[in-house]
User: Which sequence fits this backbone?
């Protein structure tokens, strides 16, 4: 990780839907190659913030740049320099493995030659050569997710946004998925990930925890555990949720 290079800069981000404030004055920075966990209970405001960081929705106010691009004025450049994967939006089930790779590679403007070369390398790395011409719908969920992640970074983006990428898969497959995340991070890709699995929160370099639209804690998992006198991230998370309930 290169701590000097900040690839995400967020200052006083607010997002309102009418009278309701979904993101309340968020400020944070993410370094190049960092694995940044973006946690919060259901409805805390994570997806709202991710949509803004991906250039899909405008903030109500705040200064935000992603991969060096302004989220108000440079949305198209921003989108070309990021990758995105979620549990819901992922690969086309009716297309084959290779057709999906070719489709996404084409969207990002990669040439036919580059797509073929990189697809060969990718399928070899994932040990999925035999599945090249199989429809996505016929693959196990764990393979789909690894493939979806690899496709999301196929165009070598600066940052990849992962919105609950491992929902519904078993712990062993999730661990393998995280090996791919570590590898991408070592290659300099910044990882911005949301998850409801607290063991995954432990794998992050830093974690922010949002409660009711506000970031209530942000640090390394080790420091958060120390601050909250907790044995694991589950306890940290619960302590914050409890504080929020008491305030109400
Ligand atoms: N377009 C919208 N109009 C009005 N309210 C919205 C809109 N989008 C989101 N919200 C509200 O903003 C709050 C935050 O939603 P958001 O989807 O960002 O939460 P989340 O942390 O991603 O939750 P989850 O973990 O369930 O995905 C919720 O109360 C939601 O109902």
Assistant:
């Amino acid at each position: 990780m290169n701590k000097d290079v900040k690839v995400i800069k967020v200052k006083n981000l607010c997002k309102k839907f009418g009278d309701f404030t979904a993101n309340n004055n968020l400020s944070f920075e993410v370094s190049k190659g960092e694995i940044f966990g973006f946690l919060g209970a259901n409805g805390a405001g994570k997806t709202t913030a991710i949509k803004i960081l991906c250039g899909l929705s405008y903030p109500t106010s705040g200064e935000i740049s992603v991969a060096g691009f302004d989220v108000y004025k440079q949305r198209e450049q921003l989108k070309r320099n990021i990758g995105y994967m979620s549990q819901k939006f992922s690969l086309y089930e009716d297309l084959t493995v290779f057709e999906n790779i070719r489709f996404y590679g084409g969207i990002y403007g990669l040439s036919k030659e580059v797509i073929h070369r990189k697809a060969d390398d990718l399928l070899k790395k994932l040990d999925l050569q035999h599945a090249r011409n199989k429809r996505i719908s016929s693959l196990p969920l764990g393979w789909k997710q690894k493939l979806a992640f690899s496709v999301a970074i196929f165009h070598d983006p600066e940052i990849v946004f992962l919105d609950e990428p491992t929902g519904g898969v078993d712990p062993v497959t999730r661990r393998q998925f995280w090996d791919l995340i570590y590898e991408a991070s070592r290659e300099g890709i910044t990882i911005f990930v949301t998850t409801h699995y607290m063991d995954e929160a432990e794998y992050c370099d830093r974690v922010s925890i949002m409660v009711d639209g506000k970031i209530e804690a942000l640090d390394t998992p080790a420091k958060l555990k120390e601050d909250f006198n907790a044995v694991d991230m589950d306890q940290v998370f619960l302590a914050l949720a409890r504080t929020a309930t008491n305030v109400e």
